[in-house]
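Appendix B, record 7
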Amino acid sequence: MALGRSAALRVGSLVLVCTLAACGGGASANKEPPLENFTAEEIYKRGEYELEVGNPRRPSEALRYFQEVERLYPYSEYAKRALIMQVFAQHKAKKYEEARVSAQRYLDTYPGSEDAAYAKYLLALSYYDQIDEVGRDQGLTFQALQALREVIEQYPESDYARSAAMKFDLAFDHLAAKEMEIGRYYLKKGHYTAAINRFRVVVEQYQTTTQTPEALERLVEAYLALGLVDQAQTAGAILGHNFQSSPFYDDAYRRLKKQGLEPEAKGESWLSTIYRQVIKGEWL
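Structure tokens (predicted):
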């Protein structure tokens, strides 16, 4: 029975791997033949195999083969393919700075390549995948946002634009979450003005994130603590109009009712401006 194409490729890859690894036993079995003896394609496929095995230690081994393709066959098509695979292997090995350098080198060398969008996306991921917790330095988050934005703007029709847009929203939310974390700390300590400043940043600059409902509820709490009822009522009105089903609105509504107040736009403040713009559509 004839082998299918995919099965034949797997067999071919296995034979190639065995050749490169000196399969077959004997004294030479433990020593790899000089890579200079193999073609660019053969070395490249060995690197692919190392990645596919799935061993956590494999990315670095795969990287060696891709680098050797570039060294031994610098002007070949496989050298070009090996460079983008270097970026992938470095990212998989969590060598993020090296991945960024390789990705940028690919973009500088092959700006019009069909893999340029992928290189740009991997460069963005090298920042994004280091955003692992709210308390971390936010510099990486800003860099991730910038790099993701470039993927979206420069390669809008690519397969990576949609994924970059989703990750952009998550990174944006991450920045808002940091502001909320600091704001809650100030609120707990009774530093109401400092807390308000943080929640204001969320409402004004990150209003499309998931942090906005809580920011408005916390503003109600902080303004009530300062006796600034107009601002508290206005924050409650915005919250009620945009997030009425949110538990944060329930909390804000109870706080206002406890003092005999209603969630409604009152007075003149930055929140009144937000109310007129977002709810009444008065932007001038």
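Remarks on this record: Residues 161-188 form the longest helix (28 residues). DSSP finds 13 helices and no strands in the chain.
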